[in-house]
Amino acid sequence: MFAASRVFGAAQRRAFSASARDLSKVTVLGAAGGIGQPLSLLLKLNPRVTDLALYDIRGGPGVAADISHINTASKVTGYEPTPSGLDAALKGAEIVLIPAGVPRKPGMTRDDLFNTNASIVRDLAKAAAKSAPDANILVISNPVNSTVPIVAEIFKAAGVYNPKRLFGVTTLDVVRASRFVSEIKKTDPADENIVVVGGHSGVTIVPLFSQSSHPDLVGNANLLKRVQFGGDEVVQAKDGAGSATLSMAMAGARFAESLLKAKTQSGVIEPTFVDSPLYKDQGIDFFASKVELGPNGVEKIMDVGKITSEEQTLLDACLADLKKASCSEDSLPEHAH
Ligand code: NAD
Ligand code: LMR
C-alpha cells in the first residue's frame, strides 16, 4: 500500500496543517475512472490538499463517499453529473486534473482516441474556463499532444488563457524511464530522475540519458523502446481492459504535489508539456521540457540543454511528429461541435 506517512513525512504534515495560506482545492474530472479513483485516493493522502472535488459523468458521489472515510483532514465532495454539479466542482479550484476520456485497447494508437476524447476535453475545458479560469489545468486524457492545445484554444476563445497554468502531464514517462534505468543499473529508483522531453506518444517521447549519471545508456535500443512504448506494454498486458491507471495515478499525484509544493518552495522542477517558446519558430507551440514550477504555475521553461548527436536524431523525429499534432478547435471532429 502507498502509505501517506512514507510519502509525506511528519514534519511536512505538521508544516502543512491548516494555515489559510495553504488551503488548496483540487478537482478531479473523471474521478470514477481507472486513473481517477487511485488518483483521488492519493490526493486524499496528501496533506497539502484541503478540499478534494470529485466529478465524473457516473459514480463521482460514490467514489467521494468511499474516500471521505479515510482519516486525513481534507474535505471530499462528490458532484452530480449535471452542468451545475460540474461548475460547483470547479469553483475555487487551484488545480484541476483531467483524466476523463476513453483509454486505448490493443492495436490502437493514442491518436485513435482523438475523436472521442477531444470533445470530452473540450467540454470540460469550457466549464473550467467559466468556473475556474485561474486554476492550473493538468491534462492527462490522451492524446496529450493534441488535448493540451485544445484546452488552450478553449481558454483563448473565452478570453482567459494563461499559458503559465496549462500542463500536459508527461510525468509517467519520467517515472518509467527512472524505474527502467534503476532496474538496469541496480540503483535505488528514488535516486534516478531521468529527463524526458518532447511529447507523450511513441517517438515524441525523448529520454535524455546523457544528462543522467548513466550516459552510457544513450544508444540502448531496448531501454529507449521501453520508455517510448511503455504505454503499449501495459495496454497489451491488460488485454482490452484499458491502459496504465495505477502508475498514472501516482504520476499525476506527484505532479500535483510538485505544483502545490512550488507555492512556497523554489527549485521545484518537473518535465511537462507546456506552451513553450523553444520550437515556435518550427511551428511547434507545445513542448515538454524541464519546467521550474512556482506560485504562478510555470516559473521558467528550460531548453533541452546539451545532448548527444544520437539524442539530437531522436529529437528531430520528435519535432517532426509534434508538428502534425498541433490542433485548433477548428480541427475538432464534426460531431464534437
Ligand atoms: P477510464 O475509462 O477507466 O476512466 C475514464 C473516466 O472518465 C470514466 O470514469 C468516465 O465516466 C469519465 N468520463 C468520460 N467522459 C467524461 C466527462 N465528459 N466528464 C467527466 N468524466 C468523464 O479511463 P482511464 O484508464 O482512467 O484513462 C483516462 C484517460 O487517461 C485516457 O484517455 C487515457 O489514454 C489517458 N492516460 C493518459 C496517461 C498520460 O500519461 N497522460 C496515462 C494513462 C492514461
Ligand atoms: C501511457 O503512457 O501509459 C498512457 O498514455 C496510456 C496509453 O495509452 O499508453
TrEMBL record:
The enzyme's E.C. designation: 1.1.1.37
- Name the enzyme's class: oxidoreductase
- CDD domains listed in its UniProt record: MDH_glyoxysomal_mitochondrial
Q: Give the annotated active site.
A: 200
Family listed: Belongs to the LDH/MDH superfamily. MDH type 1 family.
List, alphabetically, the PANTHER family matched: MALATE AND LACTATE DEHYDROGENASE (PTHR11540), MALATE DEHYDROGENASE, MITOCHONDRIAL (PTHR11540:SF73)
Q: What is this protein called?
A: Malate dehydrogenase
- This protein's species is Coleophoma crateriformis
Taxonomy of origin reads: Eukaryota, Fungi, Dikarya, Ascomycota, Pezizomycotina
